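Tokens in:
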């Protein structure tokens, strides 16, 4: 199983999430759409991302909640 999808998502979030601050589900959904469009442009199949991380929405939402560098509750 390739980690290309997860690596792409990590890079995209590192580049784009510092400019986005939200806990609004609609705004997070827009970010999910943006990352999927970017992946398609880069030749990364959406299925590769979902295969590695499951819910992109949950990954982005959790990243927004832990922007201060704290660990998610499940990791503490």
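Residues out:
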């Amino acid at each position: 199983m390739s980690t290309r999808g997860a690596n792409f998502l990590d890079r995209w979030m590192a580049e784009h999430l510092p400019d986005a601050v939200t806990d609004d589900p609609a705004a997070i959904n827009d970010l999910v759409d943006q990352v999927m469009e970017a992946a398609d442009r880069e030749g990364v199949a959406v299925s590769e991302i979902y295969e590695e991380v499951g819910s992109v929405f949950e990954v982005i939402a959790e990243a927004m909640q832990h922007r201060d560098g704290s660990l998610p509750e499940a990791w503490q």
